[in-house]
Amino acid sequence: MSSKILVVAEHDGAKLNASTLKAVACAAKVPGASIDVAVLAADASAVAQQAAAVTGVAKVVVVENPANQEPLAAVYAPQVAKLATAGGYTHVFGPSTTFGKDVMPRVAALLGVSQVSDVMAVEGSHVFKRPVYAGNAILTVEVPADAPVVATVRVASFEAAPLGGSAPIEKTSVDVALPGHTRFVSRSGATTGRPDLQAASRVVSGGRALGSADNFKLIYALADKIGAAVGASRAAVDAGYVPNDLQVGQTGKIIAPELYFAIGISGAIQHMTGIKDARTIVAINKDAEAPIFESADIGLVGDLFQIVPELEKALG
Amino acid sequence: MRRIMVGVKRVVDYNVRVRVKPDNTGVITEGVKMSINPFDEIALEEALRIKEKGLADEVVAVSIGPADTQQQLRTALAMGADRAILVQTDANLPPLSVAKVFHGIAQAEQPFLVLLGKQAIDEDNGQTAQMLAALLDRPQAVSCSKVEVTDGKATVTREVDAGLETLEIDLPAVLSVDLRLNEPRYVKLPDIMKAKKKPLDTKNLGDYGVTEGSPFKTVKVEPPPARSKGIMVKDVAELVGVLKQKGLV
Ligand SMILES: Cc1cc2nc3c(=O)[nH]c(=O)nc-3n(C[C@H](O)[C@H](O)[C@H](O)COP(=O)(O)OP(=O)(O)OC[C@H]3O[C@@H](n4cnc5c(N)ncnc54)[C@H](O)[C@@H]3O)c2cc1C
Ligand SMILES: Nc1ncnc2c1ncn2[C@@H]1O[C@H](COP(=O)(O)O)[C@@H](O)[C@H]1O
Q: Given this model, what pLDDT does residue A191 score?
C-alpha cells in the first residue's frame, strides 16, 4: 500500500526550521511513502528552495498569501486541510514544536480525525509509537486506514533528513475563506548568538539552585566554553533566572543532545522527560540522594558554585 | 450572562511515578492518587481572576470522566467555580470526541471564553483546545502565559519555541493555558463546605451525540527503555577525564 504524505513546513519566512527535516525523516519511515512539503507563506521563494533540497521530498507545494505572513493556526489550518483533501493525502505530518502543536490539531479537527501527537517511531503505515504520562509509558497506537492520519513528529526522535534533493516547486492557491478574528501583534525572542537548544549537540542546563539570574552567568560561561546551548528547569524559569524558551522538559523543549549537563537540577520526572534521548547526562548536585543521579551517566556530588568555575577552567 | 467555561480533567496526580501494567494494556491507575490536571487548575484560576475583575459573571467547570470525577469538580467548585457539569463515562475518549462534547456544551452555554489546559498530563495529547476552536470556527491561543480581556477582545501572550508571541483575538475564543499564567489558589475548608451546595449536573455522552468508541486502537503500552546505570566521579579532574575518554569534550 502506498502512502501520500503532506509535511507542513515550519519556517520564519526566510529559513526552513530544522524541525521540518525531522518531520520529513519520520514521514520517510512510513512504508511506501511519497512525501510532499507544504510551504504556506507571504513570500515563499527562499523557504520553498530550501524545502526542495531536502532528500526524500517529491514535491514542494507552495501557497503564497499575505495572510500567511505569520503562522496563525486559525489561518493556516483551513488551507492545510484543503490541500490535504484536494491532494488525496493519506497522512499529514507536522513537527511537534510549538508551531505544529498549534496548527496540527486544528487541521485534524477540520479533517474529522483525532491527531497522533508526538510520534517517536513508525511501526507501519498506520501504527505509531508515542510517549504518554510524561514519557513514563510508550503507547503503540493503530489508527484507521480509511481516514487521513494527522500526526505531530517528536523531533528529538529523528535525525534530520539530509539535504541534496531537488524537488519541483509547485505554486497553488487554495479556495477557502480565511478568518480575520486572530491578529498577530508581536513576537519577542532572544537571539543569543548561542546554539539553538533544540538542535545543539551539547546543552548545559541550570536549575533552581543557581539562585539568581546573575548566578546563571556561571552556566552561560560553561556553555560558551564548550559551544553548548543553555537550558533550564522549570523552577529556574519560573523564578525568572532565564526566559521561558530555555525550559527543558515535559512542558518545555524535548531535546536529544550528545552531552547534557544538569546543574543544580533535582531530576523531577517532568524535567527528565525532556532529556530521555540525551546520549550522556552529567549531573552536578550537592545532594547525593537527588533523583537526577538515578538517570545520570556521570554524577558528581558537590557545590555547583565551586565545581562549575573549576570545570570551566579545566575544559579550557 | 458573561460566562467562562473551564475544562477540568481528572488525571493521575503529577507526583505519582506511573507504572505500566504487566500485561501491557495500559498504566496502573488502581489505588493511585487522582487530581485535577495541573494545567486545568491554572485555567480555572485565570477564569476566577477574570470574574473577580468584574469581566465575567459565571464560571462553569466541565469534565468528562467516571463518576469519581465529582471529587475534582467539587474541588473546582471549592476553588470558586459557580457550577459544574460532569459528562459521565468510563470510556477514555479520543481528543476529537472530547472536543465534540465540549462543542455541544459550548453551544448550550454560550461562553465568551473557554479556558482549557495546554495538555492533559495523562496522555499528553495537547489537542482539545485547538479542536474545539476549529469546531466552533473561533480563534485559538495555545500555551497562554498572559491573558487580558477587554471589550469583546482579548490580548494573549503565548509561550512559543522562539520566546513569546502576542496575539489579539476576537471573543468568543478558546484558550489553552501554560504553567506560568498564574499560581492557583489554595482551597480553604469553609469553601469546601460551601461547594457541596453548588450545582453539579450530570450528563451523558449521548446528550451530545458522541459515542464511547475510539477509532484509535491501543496495540500495547510499554515502559520506556531503561537507561544503563551510570558512574559517580569524585571531582572535576575525574569528570573531565571521563568526558575526554568518551570523546565528548
Ligand atoms: C504539569 C507540570 C509540568 C512540569 N513541566 C516541567 C518541565 O517541562 N521542565 C521542568 O524542569 N520542570 C517541570 N515541572 C516542574 C518539576 O516538577 C520540578 O518542580 C522542577 O523541575 C524542579 O526544578 P529544579 O530541579 O531546578 O529545582 P529543585 O527541585 O528545587 O532542585 C534543585 C536542586 O539543586 C540542588 N542544589 C541546591 N543547591 C546546590 C548547590 N549549591 N550545588 C549543587 N546543587 C545544589 C538541590 O539538591 C536540588 O536537587 C513541571 C511540573 C508540573 C506540575
Ligand atoms: N475528559 C476531559 N474532561 C475535562 N477536560 C478535558 C478532558 N479532556 C481534555 N480536557 C481539557 O483539554 C485540555 C487538553 O487536553 P488534551 O488535549 O487531552 O491534552 C485539558 O487540559 C483539559 O482542560
A: 67
Q: Which residues contact A251 (CB under 8 A, 6 or more apart)?
A: A234, A270, B118, B119, B178, B179
- Residue B116 forms beta bridges with which residues? B176
Question: Is the backbone peptide bond immediately before A179 cis, with ω within 30 degrees of 0?
Answer: no
CB atoms within 10 A of CB A289: 9
Query: Which positions in chain A touch B96 (Cβ < 8 Å)?
Result: 108-109, 112-114
B42-99 pLDDT, tens digit per residue, is 999 999 999 999 999 999 999 999 999 999 999 999 999 999 999 999 999 999 999 9
Residues of A within 8 A of B232 (CB-CB) are 293, 298-301
What helix, strand, coil percent values describe chain B, rounded to 5?
30, 30, 40
Hey, of A8, A12, A106, which one would you mutate to test binding to chain B, going by the most B CBs within 10 A of its CB?
Answer: A106
- Would you state the cell numbers that stand for residue B161, as one nine-digit string? 519555541
Whole-number Å distance between alpha carbons of B91 and A34: 36
Which residue out of B6, B36, B37 has the highest number of ligand 2 atoms within 8 Å of its CB and is therefore the one to mutate? B37
Q: pTM, whole model, 2 decimals?
A: 0.96
Q: Is the ipTM of this complex over 0.90?
A: yes
Q: Are B10 and B36 in contact (CB under 8 A)?
A: yes
Who's near A115: CB < 8 A, 6+ residues apart?
A104, A105, A108, A150, A151, A152, B95, B125, B127
